[in-house]
Design goal:
Order of helices and strands: EEEEEEEEEEE
Helix content: under 10%
Distance between the termini: 40 Å
Number of helices: 0
Strand content: over 45%
Length: about 130
């Protein structure tokens, strides 16, 4: 079955960097998109960055554009989220999720992603 496991979260000071990893298994990678989503207490879950595994196209939200980069390692079946210039408002639980490309109308809409990891917490604080 589809499995997603996040790692790399932690505590970082404002302006710092973290790299999140999403290890995947159980599905044909080429037919999917993988996204990084986040949810802070009291807020709705939102998409930050999503990538089409087949052709590498990405969609990045305005709130993280220029600071976050999503990338994939096909051999390792892992998707990364490099987060730079972190701000306190980036603090949240970060989830990776998978969606069949055939199920996507948008690229990074929460409701279109069927498979989710357990999440990894990111805290940006001095």
């Amino acid at each position: 079955q589809v499995q997603l496991e996040e790692s790399g979260g932690g505590l970082v000071q404002p302006g710092g960097s973290l790299r999140l990893s999403c290890a995947t298994s159980g599905f044909i990678w080429d037919f999917y998109a993988i996204g990084w989503f986040r949810q802070a207490p009291g807020n709705e879950r939102e998409g930050t960055s999503c990538i089409n595994i087949w052709d590498g196209r990405v969609n990045v939200s305005d709130s993280v554009k220029g600071r976050f980069t999503i990338d994939r390692d096909i051999a390792e079946r892992t998707v990364y989220l490099q987060m730079n210039s972190l701000k306190p408002e980036d603090s949240a639980i970060y989830y990776c999720a998978a969606a069949r490309l055939s199920d996507l109308q948008g690229m990074c809409a929460v409701a279109e992603y069927a498979y989710w990891g357990q999440g990894t917490q990111v805290i940006v604080s001095s």
